[in-house]
Amino acid sequence: MTRRSVPRPTRSIQRTATAVVGGTATAAALMLFAAAPAGADTPVAEPDSFTSAFTAMATPDQVVNGEGVATPGEPGAMGTFTLRINSDLDIVCYDIALEGVTGDYMSAAKTATHLHEASAGAAGPPRLAFPNPTPIGDGPRSSSGCMQGPFTTGLTPDGADADSGTGFTLDRIEANPAGFAADTHTADFVAGTVRGQLTQIPVGSVATGGGGSAIAASDSASSSVLPVAGAVALGAMAIAGVTVVARRSGTARS
Question: Residue 79, Cβ neighbours under 10 Å: how many?
Fold first, then answer.
């Protein structure tokens, strides 16, 4: 099967993103991607196509501590993590929306919002560190943008001699999405406020704009809509204008 790409119509996309570089937030880095070579967690523009898309509905009851022991997060909090991946370019575009999360972020990593390589109910090292959703306070928080590897988290696990993001590539998510969990940590809920396992969704079910998003329809979500531009229900089918890349099933990547 040959790869095909369906062009998207020209549209104006306004993306609000805050990149965290060396602990300092900078949105200006998004304007410099074309002039600077790609480095660790380099903020980049949205690519023309994606090879896959994933979402996680994060809730307090899924949180575990570093030993894999259930450690409930913040009551009433919830979140969605939506990732669109171009694994050929090692670019991930993320949309994160949190609601009911309170207090300051806290983590030994360079940010407190992560993608861990961990199956449901298990602990695992962070592989991606996303900019923390803002604004900090009692209201909704969100974070959107795209970044390109090589990736770093700022965390070196016990017994390891390298950053937990070293050598990580996005095709590992595509190979086993259920083996990854998204979460965020605060000072009051160090193990995590909310956590959710990744589930693959059709690329066409994610609306573009601000990075795109997907929100699962549920009783708990029906009374509260998370504030991410372009949000769509997980059950939505393909939306015209989103580039879809066909990939040969079962083909190993080198």
Answer: 29
DSSP for residue 173: H
Instruction: Indicate the helix (H) or strand (E) that contains 145.
Output: strand 141-148
Residues 191 and 185 sit within 8 Å (Cβ to Cβ): yes
Q: Could you give phi then psi for residue 208, rounded to 5 degrees?
A: -85, 160
- From CA 158, how far away is CA 156, in angstroms rounded? 7
Among positive and negative, which fits the CA dihedral 139, 132, 74, 78?
positive
Whether the Cβ atoms of residue 231 and residue 207 lie closer than 8 Å to each other:
yes
pTM for the whole structure: 0.69
Residue 231 CB: number of other CB atoms within 10 A? 21
Grouping H, G, I as helix, E, B as strand and the rest as coil, residue 174 is helix
pLDDT in tens, 154-190: 999 887 889 999 999 999 999 999 999 999 999 999 9
Query: In the sheet where 52-58 sits, what is the strand order?
Result: 42-43, 141-148, 91-99, 78-86, 52-58, 199-201
Q: Tens of pLDDT along 129-153?
A: 999 999 999 999 999 999 999 999 9
Torsion region of 250: left, alpha or beta (phi above 0 gives left; psi -120 to 50 gives alpha): left
